Amino acid sequence: MNNQDLVGDEPAPEVAMAIKRCLESLVRDARRSQMDDLAEFLALAALAADDAAKARRKAAAAAPNDLANRRVAGSC
Question: How do the domains of the chain map onto residue ranges?
Answer without folding.
Answer: 13-67
